[in-house]
Design goal:
The chain has 234 residues and is mainly beta. The chain folds into three domains: 3-42; 55-132, Immunoglobulins (Immunoglobulin-like), CATH 2.60.40; 138-233, Immunoglobulin-like (Sandwich). It is 3% helix and 60% strand. It contains one helix and 19 strands. It has a five-stranded mixed sheet with strand order 5-12-11-7-9, with no helix packed on it. The chain has a four-stranded antiparallel sheet with strand order 4-6-10-8, with no helix packed on it. Strands 16-15-18-19 form a four-stranded antiparallel sheet, with no helix packed on it. Strand 18 and strand 19 form a beta hairpin. It is elongated, with a radius of gyration of 30 Å.
Length: 234
Amino acid sequence: TERWGDYSDMQRRHNAATPSVWMSGCFGTNSNEWNTWIAEIGGDFEPVPFPEALFESDTNLIYQGESVFFSDSSINQPSSWNWTFEGGSPQTSSSQNNLVTYQDTGWFDVTLAVSNQFGSDTLTKDAYIYVLSTDTAEPAAVSEIEKNMEMKVYPNPAVEYDLVNIYIDNEDWAQVDINIIDIQGRVVKAMYSDQMKPGVHRLTFNKLALSSGQYVVQVRRNGQITKNEKIIVL
């Protein structure tokens, strides 16, 4: 009997637990009768390699006029990149890696959209870059600590700026623990706990993580308290 096919109903399905393809369809005979058929084709199938957007930067805290280098670390071999740098110059880019300069102060988002022949993906990091004003007195704070000051907290009181910097002048290698303590003596934020090499170090925290009030930044070297400095958060 001659048979002719109508394959408009053909389907392909992939079950991850049972890696097979099922095909189904229908056909007619010359006597105007319809029949259906189904067949399974076994075999393993690789998942479609959709891209996943990922990126890194060499820093996320800078001053006005400084630059940040962004590097793509996306997986599954994207073939195109579309960046958006809020507040930056350039504001957009299709290069894989970018050097971006920021002139305005504040928090800024960064977005990367990637794609390849199989699909696309987008990643946005909210408030990823923080740009400080060049009017801050940080250079003076650094110069003071370099004159054998053990610690400097700036700004203090923390009013205008969301980020607070703690500068530590460490004389030699030591186990250093730095904590922020409330007026009840409780540790509300652990800033550092590790071996610290000699030199000037800067630690940064966001004052929004603390309620308004008075705190103490406490430094321990090799288990001994060596410095307590009061900080006011408004």
